[in-house]
Amino acid sequence: MLHDGLVNRIPRPDVALAQHVINYESGYTGINEGPTLSAGDSIKITLWGRGSHGSMPHNSVDPAVLAASVVLRLQSVVSRELAPGTFAVVTVGSIQVGSKSNIITDHATLLLNVRTYDLDVRAHVLAAIERIVRGECQAAGSPAEPTFEYYDQFPLTLNDPTVTEHVHSALREHYGEQLVFTSKPATASEDFSNIPNAFGTPYTYWTFGGADPYSYQQALASGRVALDIPANHSPYFAPVMDPTIGTGTSNVVVAACAYLAK
């Protein structure tokens, strides 16, 4: 939509509002100022070696060994390069190298995922990843420079304080204090803010629960919420119809009327 010229097709919105159902107790709504969802970056890294027969490793630059060194070294980015308490995630989700036990292939492919709440931290982490990968390739005698392909990139979701407080106040007035709470930032990512960012429009993004209240309370009492309540993208994530749909619908109406009602 943005590439198609949305910013020039419609008037600039005064405010942008969004919500998402997640796996806490149905009937409750959570909202917070500032970072609420992390910036997200996926990276495809190709490491180049020199192939050889498995019985002749001395003739190779083994990309499997190189990939293993890179994965281990990347674990130091968050633990040793960021101040304690600074949030960041660096996950190596996939390693693909070779297809036969007796063949040393000539390349390896790593798929990484990075999450951050601060754009300066994001820049530092991405630069550190590239520095470490290039350094390990040089140490291994790699015959070519590694390649980096960035994809599935999501912006930081940074809730505007004024808009958030206005919506929070309207939701508390509608539901009462008990059903609306100040949520904590989540490590998931979302592309919603691309549109208000393009317009320079302030926004807020909140969540509401979809888990069966009885099951959630049982899991909470046993300390097993993370184990027993399926999260978004799980094949078992199945919000209960009531009161989830009613809460979600009311949230949108209440938030919109906080700006539209006379």
From TrEMBL:
Residue ranges occupied by any Peptidase M20 dimerisation domain in the UniProt entry: 43-136
GO molecular function: hydrolase activity
InterPro entries reported in the protein's UniProt record: Amidohydrolase, Bact_exopeptidase_dim_dom, Peptidase_M20, Peptidase_M20_dimer
Keywords: Hydrolase
Record keyword Lipid metabolism present: no
Top-level division of the source organism's lineage: Bacteria
Hydrolase keyword on record: yes
Protein name (Swiss-Prot/TrEMBL): Amidohydrolase
Species this chain originates from: Neomicrococcus aestuarii
